[in-house]
Amino acid sequence: MNYVEKSGKTVEEAVENALREINLTRDEIEIEVLEEPSKGLFGFIGGRPALVRVKPKETPARQARALLEKVMQTMDLDVDIDVIEKDEKILININGPDLGILIGRRGETLDALQYLVNLSANKNTDKRKRILIDIEGYRKRREDTLKKLAYKLADKAKQRGRNVILEPMNSMERRIIHTALQGRDDIYTFSEGEEPYRKIIIAPKK
Hints:
CATH architecture of the largest domain: 2-Layer Sandwich
CATH topology of the largest domain: GMP Synthetase, Chain A, domain 3
Shape: elongated
Oligomer: single chain
Radius of gyration: 26 Å
Structural class: alpha+beta
Number of domains: 3
Number of strands: 9
Order of helices and strands: EHEEHEEHHEHEHEE
Strand content: 25-35%
């Protein structure tokens, strides 16, 4: 929906009529008065109602949804997009059949999609919000897998008494590994290398 146009005896009444149709609050809309009301001859003959055009304000959440809907339509994918807006971030969950193509190898396609949506949705906005996109619960499953891997390799580093080097990961996945092992007192973790080949080292404490 781009906008609705509604009339009323007054501008205020026309706006209220529009709000009822688009189901938004006054803070969420932009109002353009197309015609001011006029009383006409003798106060009633040929009178003209007020006419307003009301459209939703452009927000990062709405722009993100619109972009994703366009991408899904272009790819001919039947999906449900659930947007949850919080103070500093926007969580977007995409569900539907056969969405592996949107996830890619180890989430690379999903990360690229998330990056592009962040750039586009936060363009020309006063308050930038971090947008996190998940598909069919992939990120939670990946997090669980990374935690199990972290525990296993930490034990390996301790038992063998030497460093274990993980494969390159993005910053989000590295943070999961660091956080999972930060409570251990027998090993420590650090990152080295340059993006996108930066990797985690699990080292035993001497």
